[in-house]
Amino acid sequence: MSEEVQKHSVHTLVFRSLKRTHDMFLANQTFLPILKDDTAEKIRRAVKARDCYGLVFDRVQTVKAQKANHDGGNVHQAHPEENLAITAAPSANSQSSALVPVTQSTPFSQPPTGQMQLIPKKAPTIPKPKWHPPWKLYRVISGHLGWVRCVAVEPGNEWFATGAADRVIKIWDLASGKLKLSLTGHVSTVRGLAVSVRHPYLFSCGEDRQVKCWDLEYNKVIRHYHGHLSAVYSMALHPTIDILATAGRDSTARIWDMRTKANIHTLTGHTNTVASVVAQTANPQIITGSHDSTIRLWDLAAGKSVCTLTNHKKSVRSVVIHPTLYMFASASSDNIKQWRCPEGNFIQNLTGHSAIINCMAVNPEGVLVSGGDNGTLHFWDWRTGYNFQRAQAPVQPGSMDSEAGIFAMSFDQSGSRLITAEADKTIKVYREDDEATEDSHPINWRPDIIKRRKF
């Protein structure tokens, strides 16, 4: 009696064949042969060096060319028989071409040894910081059931939105602190929020790899942006054109057309999680900070990196753009660094916040705030880097000591209120102390002990 052969669909047969192939070669996937091609390796290294350090190479060539031209001009002007060394001043009998005759009574006269004495430079002066009133806590908002991971303020300054580990986006009234609306749709922690200036849209992203566009007139999702391969940690809206930038754990930043949902660019180059992305109108229009300790400035039109800043030694978890100056700051656990656009020129270090800095915010008055993983807040004067206030966020009763972290913060549109999202499941609102004066809270300015390190 012949055994009847079971019939399978083509899809099942193909799937089984793929599975057998996968099982057969799975053990060898990490033992692929290494192709030793010296030419290809040199090309790869040259391309990577040009991509990461192209500006450095160009500057070195420019300096060398200027130095060669300068040396060449001096050689042609000098007579071959002339002595080019610096010698003692001519005697009184000889004719001198100096505009001011050198005598023994002048304070910078020629020493008897025949060596030239240089006029000492005037010591650089450090500007005194501007006085800022101290900030104090005046409201604690509870409502989320998990860590509050992100916050965004509406352009009209009437409400703000928060996202948390309870997978819910909540809309709060800014004046009263009361809950207005809850939006559900994410299936994992909400990590980023952005409110459009020109449209009634709220954008959100989370650890579920989803990027959503909410229509606030109907309070529902109208668009999804698919493409990220892992959790999405940060997002930013371009101020003038309808594009959205997102970044996350897949080491990339993606640029989306807001309306068509098209992935315009995938910005690759980072080698670890991209923790922060910001956008501005002028170049560089996109700036990213990553856990690979680098900051990249991107050419939005070409979709490639134009500069890589490698000054940080630890993970860069936050990047913030100054609202009025053409500058930005980056935060890491080693220090906070300020940079000048468009080339990313280093300005100064802000040292003293000895914690893992998760977030920063800056207002038009020049107050920079950094929030740490241990619940500490440091307030800085942007121009001088003076730390004028340090605060510890009060812990919500019933929460553990380890839940003292500050994950996100944002100033309102007026810059007079600071909203923080914290690990104790609360939202805290700070404002300036109206009763403080320069006499009650003087500036403890000690420029003699300030040490500014360039790297």
Automatic annotation (TrEMBL):
Belongs to the WD repeat PRL1/PRL2 family. Keywords: Repeat, WD repeat. GO terms for biological process: mRNA splicing, via spliceosome. Identified in the spliceosome C complex. Component of the PRP19-CDC5L splicing complex composed of a core complex comprising a homotetramer of PRPF19, CDC5L, PLRG1 and BCAS2, and at least three less stably associated proteins CTNNBL1, CWC15 and HSPA8. Interacts (via its WD40 repeat domain) directly with CDC5L (via its C-terminal); the interaction is required for mRNA splicing but not for spliceosome assembly. Component of the minor spliceosome, which splices U12-type introns. Within this complex, interacts with CRIPT. Also interacts directly in the complex with BCAS2 and PRPF19. One of its GO terms (cellular component) is catalytic step 2 spliceosome. This is Pleiotropic regulator 1. Pfam families: WD40. Involved in pre-mRNA splicing as component of the spliceosome. Component of the PRP19-CDC5L complex that forms an integral part of the spliceosome and is required for activating pre-mRNA splicing. As a component of the minor spliceosome, involved in the splicing of U12-type introns in pre-mRNAs.
